[in-house]
Amino acid sequence: MLTEVIATRYVTPLREGGSLPGIVEADDLGTYVTKFVGAGQGRKTLVAEVVAGELARRLGLRVPVLVRVRLDPVIGLGEPDEEVQDLLKASGGLNLGMDYLPGSLGFDPLAFEVEPREAGRVVWFDGLVGNVDRSWRNPNMLLWHGDLWLIDHGATMIWHHNWPTADRSVTKPYDASDHALAPFTPDIASAREELAPKVTEELLREVVALVPDEWITDEPGFGGPEAVRAAYTRQLLARARAADAWRPSVPADYRRPEKPGVGNAPAWLKGRQSK
Ligand SMILES: Nc1ncnc2c1ncn2[C@@H]1O[C@H](COP(=O)(O)OP(=O)(O)O)[C@@H](O)[C@H]1O
Ligand SMILES: [Mg+2]
Q1: 221 falls within a domain
Q2: Vertex 228 angle, CA 21 and 209, to 5°
């Protein structure tokens, strides 16, 4: 099970995306970027964060620690912002927390260099889970202590919004031309060779077991949480086995932006680019 913490203080909303995640302090003295179960995007966003995030971690990619955040809506009573107060009121019970990385910077493809091997692993993983939310406009990656960290897997596995047609997505090609790491000549062939064999049924079961029952309990067409977990496992296993069919593609004539590299990085960061 993911570690469970109890929210003790709502600190501030993060207003970048649409889902209004917030920074929350917890009883373990940790600080977490929290995605709320009562947000308009619904519980599937949280399921996607757990399944894709924990799968990425097991494939050796850096993802901040995920926790279950138990929330008593009473902590929102003093919130001056009505939108936040409504969200907290609707989010009693379990929410998803991601360890807050203090001092991290949003990844900027024009300012930082990523090695082809690492870029390939990230792009291949995003192809596996069909991530549509890692474009250069919105990279959803952070730079922290000189390393690249992946965040925000809420927009992965979009097939889980329509289970009856999910089968059709198994071999769906992954267009990576818009991907934030497309400029770094991602070594997709090596990544596929290294990662595809690691996506075993056993590993997937371990990952989907981390999804709390209450987020998948009344999924239409399924008999209960175990049946839903089995469907995620089946789908991702089929996708991994079909890796040759959906190989992420970056157009052959893709042109790196002029002089990416260190040009735009602040002086104090030069020489500390992501490895
Ligand atoms: N673990 C983290 N540590 C530090 N900042 C974070 C972390 N997770 C998210 N953020 C910041 O919050 C913003 C919104 O988080 P994100 O998970 O992308 O949510 P969404 O895009 O769904 O609103 C990010 O773009 C980033 O600036
Ligand atoms: Mg985001």
Answers
A1: yes
A2: 70
Strand-pair partners of 94: 70
Whether pTM exceeds 0.85: yes
Q: What is the CA(84)–ligand 2 centre distance, in A?
A: 18
Query: Does 247 share its domain with 166?
Result: yes
Ligand 1: nearest atom to the Cα of 133 = 21
Strand pairing of 66-71 and 147-150? unpaired
Same domain for 17 and 127, yes or no, is: no
Indicate the SS3 state at residue 5: strand
Question: Same domain, yes or no, for 74 and 125?
Answer: no
Q: Are residues 175 and 130 in the same domain?
A: yes
Whether residue 93 is found in the same domain as residue 115: no
What pLDDT digit, counting tens, does each position of 115-149 carry?
999 999 999 999 999 999 999 889 999 999 999 99
C-alpha of residue 82 to centroid of ligand 1, in Å: 21
Residue pointed to by tokens 């996708």 = 239
As a whole number of angstroms, the distance between CA 183 and CA 179 comes to 8
Mutate to test the pocket of ligand 1, among 33, 35, 83 (most ligand atoms within 8 A of CB): 33
Q: What are phi and psi of 183, to 5 degrees?
A: -70, -5
CA separation for the pair 265, 90 (Å, rounded): 41
